[in-house]
Write a structure and sequence with these properties.
Elements lengths: L4 H11 L1 H6 L2 E6 L2 E6 L6 E2 L3 E2 L1 H17 L9 E9 L8 E9 L4 E10 L5 E10 L7
Antiparallel strand pairs: 1-2, 2-6, 3-4, 5-8, 6-7, 7-8
Length: 140
Amino acid sequence: MPITPAEIQAIAHRAVPLAGEWGIEVLEAGAGRALCLLPAAPRLLRPGGIVSGPAIMGFADVAFWAALLSLTEGRDESLTVSMSVNFLRAAGPGPLIAESRLIKPKGRLLFGEVLIRRKDEAAPIAQVTATWMAVQPPKT
């Protein structure tokens, strides 16, 4: 049975407490894709009243993991190896939407892309590519 977005969200909040503190929601997830929401919050803003770069990068990382968890039925201990972020324009104060997809979902290195946009707009504010390393479970 496929894992639900609510189950992925619960896993993310438990494993990455910052995702819960920020209120990240997993709206949709399946087949190596996820749609996530980062609610507006004053603690995520930088001077000028826009969502900070670190918050955007953290949001992208969680969104990538949500897409990965949709393929692994919620069992995954992969690690981020690298992220490349292109900030295309100011994010504004939020909320933000992340659309993530795995491009290479199998093997030792996993590769994907996350597009982040304002909730009320179609044009992206950031484009992120991520590489993760699959971690083998310990042998017992």
